[in-house]
Amino acid sequence: MGQFAYMAEIDPDGRLVSFEQVLTDERFASLRIGKSTQADVIRTVGHVPRWNRWGFKDGERWSYRYQQNGVWDAVMTIYFDRNGVVEAMESGIDPLLLRD
Predict the structure, then answer these.
(1) What is the C-alpha separation between 37 and 48, in angstroms, rounded?
(2) Which residues pair with 91 in a beta bridge?
(3) What is the CA 24 to chain-centroid distance, rounded?
(4) What is the rounded distance in angstroms from the CA atom of residue 77 to the CA atom of residue 52?
(5) H or E element: which one contains 42?
(6) Residues 14-54 pLDDT 10s
(7) N or C: which end of the chain has fewer CB within 10 A?
(8) Please, what is the Cα angle at 2 between 100 and 89, to 5 degrees?
(9) Could you tell me which of 36, 24, 47 has the C-alpha nearest to residue 79?
(10) Of 29, 97, 41, which is closest to residue 65 (Cα–Cα)?
(11) In terms of C-beta density within 10 A (0-12 exposed, 13-18 middle, 19 or more buried), how is residue 8 classed?
């Protein structure tokens, strides 16, 4: 449930090729509504720390906490249809980190 997730790429010899933070606006923007699948989302931003079923469509929604624009505490919610394809995405204020 943190705001950071890192992915590492290891070559066949076991050496680190790349290491990067993946919960970013750029990574989320690379996902395509109507095309990206749950597997694509996992490859792009990692496994979801929190998900739930929603509504009458038998879909799911996955929520990722992150820092929008590297500054603001936010949650990106990705909605999937019953076939596991991205149906919508929305970003909003992280309710767990609201400050008075």
Answers:
(1) 13
(2) 76
(3) 9
(4) 11
(5) helix 38-45
(6) 999 999 999 999 999 999 999 999 999 999 999 887 666 55
(7) C
(8) 85
(9) 36
(10) 97
(11) exposed
Residues 15-28 as b/e (b if ≥16 CB within 10 A, e otherwise) read eeeeeeebbbeebb
Please identify which residue in the block is written with the tokens 């603001």. 72
| Model pLDDT for residues 41-91, shown as the tens digit of each residue | 999 999 887 666 555 467 888 999 999 988 889 999 999 999 999 999 999
* Residue 97 · residue 76 · CB < 8 Å: no
Structure tokens given for 6: 């890192």
Q: pTM of the prediction?
A: 0.82
Whose tokens are 């993946």? That residue is: 22
